[in-house]
Amino acid sequence: MLTLRSLQTSYGPIKALRGIDIEVSSGEIVCLLGSNGAGKTTTLMTVSGILRPDKGDIIFEGESLTAMPPSEIVRKGICHVPEGRRIFPKLTVHDNLEMGAYSAPSSDLNRNFEKVFAIFPILKERARQMGGTLSGGEQQMLAIGRSLMSNPRMLLLDEPSLGLAPIMVSRIFKIIQDINREGITVLLVEQNARAALQLSHRGYVLETGTIQLSGTGEELLGNEDVKKAYLGV
Questions:
Q1: Can you count the helices (H) and strands (E) in the chain?
Q2: Which of 85, 91, 100, 199 is the most exposed place for a label (fewest CB within 10 A)?
Q3: Edge-to-edge strand ranges of the sheet holding 185-189
Q4: What digits encode the pLDDT tens for the residues 144-169?
């Protein structure tokens, strides 16, 4: 579904990605692991068109995204849920969700609201509340719900558990799994390596902009280097 070929991305003179190759098949959850500065967020931002690659290609369902603007990439079926949620704090929950639907057919709007409210009933209860007054977990639900309003076929999720209480982390991961079971492919960046690998079909380990390891979630959970670096074992 998604192929990154020899992808290189820089911030000025600093090379953040140094020629990475990643594949994500339809229906998978694939996670990216790595320490801060490894290139995980840069990968998602390059796929979604926020950053432009220096070299390489991004192929989604057989079509190159490399020269497309972010708005067109969303229309192709990829939606990015950024680190830090980035909701609109001075808009209501309802209006935040409606903002996510700008690229979807207007005929889908009511159905998409119903879909999101079925997954996140608390958002229906809070529909007229300002986004900035929600708890951290509720804001993460809103960010994911907003992305679902665009009818995505692939979600790019950047640190969805960041700053959340453990009980909310478990809930968010269960929601990601449920969304995936509904047919949405997921490329996940996540600091909680154990939970991410338990959830994911496959994973990649990035270090300083290069892929160092790849394998199934189970294989990476059992890898001694991964255990020492990311699992605290």
A1: 10, 10
A2: 91
A3: 78-81, 154-158, 185-189, 29-33, 202-207, 210-216
A4: 999 999 999 999 999 999 888 888 99
